[in-house]
Amino acid sequence: MMSNQRKIMLGIVCCTFLFLSETLAMDGNFIPPGHPGEGGQLMDAIRSLGLSDSRKTAISTIISNYQGEMTTYMDTIPELKKEMVLSVFSEEPDEEKIRQYCRDISANIEELELLKMKMLVEIKAVLYPEQVKQLQAELTGKLNFLEKQRDHRDEMMKECLE
Asked: In 37-78, where do the E strands start and end?
């Protein structure tokens, strides 16, 4: 039987492993060849719409307006995850410090996702109604793919705990 403290630490280590693996995937190290990553999926979906040059220019401007701030969050999240992992392996892991990293990571993810949705609203305003429907279908398909990946992570977590 494991003590509660050991179970908590094992859970934290497993969660940290999952966070780190997602961070590495974000950095491109574990994304399979030909897999564009989350941002690339949006770009692929937009490219599939057969846009006119004027709409391409308008969407390019929208993306450029958000790119800097989004990049800041995309750079900050992996750094926070890395710092959190390092703190777990310190002599005396501080649970409150780890919780603060989790809150900081969550806040950055929230802001990043909000920016993506704001950008998507602006992109949607540039498109014809049929293009909006096509983009929605493309992105829904991408989300279904990500859901399958999540199922794989659940299996990996079960294996880790056995």
From this structure: none
